[in-house]
Write a structure and sequence with these properties.
elongated
């Protein structure tokens, strides 16, 4: 028996255009004017302005003093939720487990969320560790090793949003040192008697999406071994997330 023809539901063209506009503004990483958006999208200024008014009303965009438009903090929250739902923590879990086996200290993965470094995945060795951290815990963005990494590799837009939230940021020289070394350290700046080291995790576009860290009591933490093992682990993770590992397997 032949099934009756059911009309296919078509996507809303207006919604697609608004989403495309969000992508263009996000890639610009700065405020943009109506004329610039019109050229990029191939639309009239009137059509662009109508979409901007809609996105402003929805809380996704805002107009700044010079008349240009920029994203609000709402896309940031959506982006961090996407990282969670995409299983970032689960994808790097095997590497985190191997790192724990090497260093025998707690290993955590944190993302930048609401002005803090938020742990989304954490593994501890098979012995108690006197550090009060757990998945969903937050760390001060400026004083923790993970926070320093997230700041050092943050975009200008992210840094501007943090300033608007009133977050105290380290100086550029300190952040430049983190980028030069490829990792950050923290000893007693956040938790007394605890050493932490962290390094950046990048996505396929080379953007920092998280910080992998190792933390342990200063009395037993082997800093040199911890840094070496951490950098090896993030190197493997970054290959996986960049897609290089999969391409090499197919080759």
């Amino acid at each position: 028996m032949t099934e009756p023809n059911v009309p296919r539901t078509q996507p809303l063209s207006t919604a697609l255009k608004c989403l495309k506009m969000l992508e263009v503004v996000a890639e610009a990483e700065r405020s943009v004017r109506v004329a610039e958006l019109a050229r990029s999208l191939g639309l009239s200024r009137a059509a662009v302005h109508q979409q901007l008014v809609t996105l402003v009303a929805a809380g996704w965009m805002e107009q700044v003093d010079d008349g240009a438009y920029r994203l609000t903090l709402r896309p940031t929250r959506i982006g961090q939720a996407a990282l969670r739902q995409a299983g970032l923590g689960e994808r790097v879990l095997p590497n985190m487990e191997r790192l724990v086996d090497v260093v025998r200290e707690a290993v955590s993965l944190a993302i930048l969320e609401r002005g803090t470094a938020t742990i989304i995945q954490r593994i501890e060795p098979g012995r108690p560790l006197q550090v009060d951290l757990r998945a969903e815990a937050t760390m001060p963005i400026s004083r923790s090793a993970s926070g320093q990494v997230l700041l050092a590799y943050a975009t200008e837009r992210q840094l501007a949003e943090l300033r608007e939230l009133g977050v105290e940021l380290p100086g550029e020289e300190e952040l430049a040192n983190v980028r030069r070394r490829g990792y950050a350290t923290s000893e007693g700046r956040w938790l007394e008697g605890v050493i932490g080291v962290a390094a950046p995790v990048f996505d396929v576009r080379g953007r920092c999406v998280g910080a992998l860290s190792v933390a342990g009591p200063s009395g037993r933490f082997d800093r040199e071994k911890g840094v070496r093992a951490l950098l090896d682990a993030v190197s493997e993770i970054n290959e996986v997330l960049s897609g290089r590992a999969r391409r090499e397997e197919r080759a």
